[in-house]
Automatic annotation (TrEMBL):
Keywords: Cell membrane, Glycoprotein, Leucine-rich repeat, Membrane, Repeat, Signal, Transmembrane, Transmembrane helix. It is a single-pass membrane protein. It comes from the Eukaryota. InterPro entries: Leu-rich_rpt, Leu-rich_rpt_typical-subtyp, LRR_dom_sf. Its main location: membrane. GO terms for cellular component: plasma membrane. Pfam families: LRR_1 (PF00560). Signal peptide: none annotated. The keyword Transferase does not apply. Belongs to the RLP family. One of its GO terms (biological process) is defense response. It is found in: Cell membrane; Membrane. This is Leucine-rich repeat-containing N-terminal plant-type domain-containing protein.
Length: 494
């Protein structure tokens, strides 16, 4: 191909035939012998795309993605009458879109991860009305979403993420009749237009990492098929819209890093498919709602860095409240072996003791309770979390000893009880032999192995660090040993 600076392996290697239809990446029509597909992705191609590609007037697929092609995309490419798929993503193309795009057969246009500059072409759907997939992510685009895009009634997937698009997210996008995936994240949108009642077929909506200000529209009744909603890292405030907290199809909700406030209210009796709930780094307050106990498919929940308070035994989401059918006994969570692998409750105002019921989470991987106001002893029942990998109880007011049974947590790779009021001997053996002193610092009465001779005869050689056992304890031990020796000598003489 003219314009390329690199060789395409498998071209011009046959001495018996120069038929290009036998070359790697070229597919020809069996009847006419004309080239219908160029599939040259991931060939490490360099150089530019020649205008001569317009001579391939039967071409249906042009895939040059994941190469190192540069320069402007020839205008003639956007006039190939039979072209159905254009994938030039992940190259170094520059320059804007042509004024006119005349691709009546176009179904897929992917120009993502280039340096195209300019704005989304307003006339993209004038002559390309059957386009199904439009991907322009990370292409340095500016401006707003053109109103003319409403004419792309066959669109199923729009991705314009990681650009510099501004203004409001227009409501007409939600009403494109076949649209299922709308990815608008990592731009500079400031608001969402949406108040209609007509139904939308969108299943995945991502507006995260923008500059959206104010309350989230209460318009989720428009999305009966919505499974994934992501709006993290914006400037959203107010409460969670009731239409979102009653979405029956929703699987994941990510509202992390905003300014939402007030209590959390979810109707988990309807939200039976909810698997991920991320509300971290907001201003939610009150108690953790026990209605989450009805979300039987939860796999990860992040409520860190909020203002929750909680006392007593948990109704969330490990055990349900007693009822008459269970004779006063706690009704165990239905899917005990499908517990969430992650529970993050750090940086809240949780008080009271650590719930022993955490020990029933056999498949929990991460439990983070640091920076709360938890008190009391560490329950030995935590040794039942046999799959736990990260357990962080630091920066609380915990007292008593570290349960020796925790050494049975064979998968534990990160552990911290730093800055509490713990005392006694740090368990040793298995995974506990790998934790540094930083896991235990800030506990004035906590010491290693034994509080009498650990510094002298049984130091933690694997860590090569001194024990935090108080000097006063050493003095008492030495004094007691001296007294015992003198008493023994007196008995011998008698």
């Amino acid at each position: 191909m003219q314009g390329l600076e690199s060789r395409i392996d498998g071209w011009f290697v046959s001495n018996s035939s120069f038929n290009c239809c036998n070359w790697v990446g070229i597919i020809c029509d069996s009847d006419s012998g004309r080239v219908v597909k160029l599939e040259l992705q991931n060939k490490r191609l360099t150089g530019g795309l020649s205008d001569l590609v317009s001579n391939l007037d039967h071409l249906k697929t042009l895939n040059l993605s994941h190469n190192f092609l540069k320069g402007m995309i020839p205008v003639s490419v956007f006039s190939l009458y039979n072209l159905e798929v254009v994938d030039l993503s992940n190259n170094v193309f520059s320059g804007g879109f042509p004024v006119s795009i005349n691709l009546p057969a176009l179904q897929v246009l992917d120009l993502s991860v280039n340096g195209l500059l300019g704005s989304i072409p307003a006339g993209i759907c004038v002559n390309s009305t059957r386009i199904r997939v439009l991907k322009l992510a990370a292409s340095s685009l500016t401006g707003t979403i053109p109103f003319e895009l409403r004419n792309c009634v066959f669109l199923e997937h729009i991705c314009v993420a990681s650009n510099s698009l501004t203004g409001a997210i227009p409501e007409f996008l939600f009403h494109l009749p076949r649209l299922m995936v709308l990815e608008l994240q990592d731009n500079m949108f400031t608001s969402i237009d949406g108040s209609g009642n007509s139904s939308s077929g969108i299943t995945r909506l991502d507006v995260s990492s923008n500059r959206i200000l104010g309350e989230l529209p209460d318009f989720f009744h428009m999305f009966p098929r919505l499974t994934h909603f992501c709006a993290h890292s914006n400037r959203l405030s107010g409460g969670i819209p009731s239409s979102l907290s009653n979405s029956p199809a929703i699987s994941s909700i990510n509202l992390r890093n905003n300014s939402f406030s007030g209590p959390i209210v979810f109707n988990c009796s309807l939200m039976t498919n909810l698997t991920l709930l991320d509300l971290g780094t907001n201003h939610f307050s009150g108690v953790i709602p026990d209605d989450l106990s009805s979300c039987h498919k939860l796999k990860a929940i992040n409520l860190a860095r909020n203002k929750f308070k909680e006392e007593g035994s948990p109704d969330f989401p490990f055990f349900k409240r007693p009822n008459t059918s269970t004779r006063g006994l706690p009704l165990q969570y239905r899917q005990l072996m499908s517990f969430p692998p992650l529970i993050d409750l750090k940086y809240n105002f949780l008080n009271g003791s650590i719930w022993p019921e955490f020990g029933n989470l056999k498949r929990l991987h991460v439990l983070n309770l640091k920076h709360n106001n938890l008190s009391g002893e560490i329950p030995s029942e935590l040794s039942g979390m046999m799959s736990i990998e990260i357990l962080d109880l630091s920066y609380n007011n915990l007292s008593g000893q570290i349960p020796p049974s925790l050494v049975n947590l064979n998968f534990l790779s990160e552990f911290s009880v730093a800055y509490n009021r713990l005392s006694g001997i740090v368990p040793y053996g298995r995974q506990f032999g790998t934790f540094s002193n930083s896991s235990f610092e800030g506990n004035r009465d906590l010491c290693g192995l034994t509080c009498e001779d650990s510094l002298v005869t049984r130091s933690r050689t694997r860590r090569s660090k001194k024990s935090n056992c108080p000097i006063e304890g050493m003095a008492v031990g030495i004094g007691f040993g001296t007294f015992f020796l003198l008493a023994l000598m007196v008995l011998i003489k008698l």
